[in-house]
Amino acid sequence: MSQEMEADNGIRVEGLIKEFPGQRVLDGLNLTVGNGEFVCLLGPSGCGKSTLLNILSGLDSDYRGSVHFGGRPMVPGGKPPATIGYLFQEPRLLPWLSAERNVDFALENSRVPRSRWGDIKDRYFALTGLQPFRDYYPHELSGGMAQRLSLVRALAIEPDVLFMDEPFSGLDELTARRLRVDLLDIWRETGKTILFITHNSYEATFLGDRVVVLSQGGIHNQISVDVPRPRDYDDAALFQVGKTVSATFIEAAEAAERARARGTRSSH
Ligand SMILES: Nc1ncnc2c1ncn2[C@@H]1O[C@H](COP(=O)(O)OP(=O)(O)OP(=O)(O)O)[C@@H](O)[C@H]1O
Question: What is the pLDDT of residues 189-221, one digit of tens each?
Fold first, then answer.
């Protein structure tokens, strides 16, 4: 496909409202993620991040508002009009299958023709540094390697977008740092649209083109990270943006707490 013909794989969420009994969790949320953009979602516990992901994934169809992937509308109750790759906090690998077979398993359930599996696996096993470990079983992999394998699995199905839900929060900081750098290399190489959920302000700043801070059912604030890539953890400009993001996150958490104390989020 030529550059000009490249599909639009952005996400557009408009006026999203989600209620649970006695509680409005998303209150008219508007959010866009551009084609190939890396957006980090940051928000205090309970602000609705997982609820939003469940809706975007098509797992929850009981909402109001609209969701578009690349201009294609999501029909509540139907499959999302985009292929979505997932990464969660835990790798969710099948323990009885080798690394390679775990990826095959995902491919078997995808639309990718079998004739392309070999090339795809070669590419992503190489990109993640897991080439020598294709025959290993999940219990033989370290936490970081297991998460790399789930990244291979997520990318192999050639997703339009990647949803990453705190994928590095269960890892030690050194491993997480390496994986963030590698993820950015892979993102540059593949141009995927990424929505990345995290509780870590500095992680969000290091990774994102933009950090969206959620609170009380909507966007509290958004911060563009105008720091050139490749980024360096010790970059003073990046640290400054991280401080702003962190302060915004704390502000959002405090606002959410005050609202909860007042009971303003109750729909009664
Ligand atoms: N199935 C459900 N039934 C009722 N309430 C729910 C349900 N799922 C989530 N909630 C409520 O909705 C709110 C948002 O939950 P959600 O899990 O989306 O938050 P979160 O931002 O992902 O939190 P965390 O960062 O702790 O994972 C919470 O108050 C939660 O109790």
Answer: 999 999 999 999 999 999 999 999 999 889 999
- The pLDDT value recorded for residue 263 is 73
Provide the pLDDT for residue 4. 41
90 lies in a domain? Answer: no
Cα(160) to centroid of ligand 1, in Å? 26
Same domain, 211 and 244: yes
Domain finish residue from 129, 159, 189: 159
Alpha carbon nearest to ligand 1 atom 18, residue: 48
Ligand 1, atom 4: nearest CA belongs to which residue? 20
The tally of CA atoms less than 13 A away on the side-chain side of residue 25 is 20
Res 265 pLDDT > 50: no
Cα 49 to averaged position of ligand 1 atoms, centre (Å): 8
The pocket around ligand 1, CB under 6 angstroms, is made up of 20, 23, 25, 43, 45-51
Between 118 and 267, name the one with better pLDDT. Answer: 118
- What is the C-alpha end-to-end distance of the chain, expressed in Å? 52
Q: Which atom of ligand 1 is nearest to the CA of 43?
A: 21
Indicate if the pLDDT at residue 5 is higher than 90: no
> 68 and 27, same structural domain?
yes
- Distance (angstroms) between ligand 1 centre and the Cα of 48 equals 6
Residue ranges making up the domain that contains 131: 97-159
154 and 168 both lie in a single domain: no
Ligand 1: which of 25, 59, 265 to mutate, judged by most atoms within 8 Å of the beta carbon?
A: 25
Per-residue confidence at 115, pLDDT binned at 50, 70, 90?
Answer: very high
- Report the 3 state secondary structure along 31-69: EEECCCCEEEEECCCCCCHHHHHHHHCCCCCCCEEEEEE
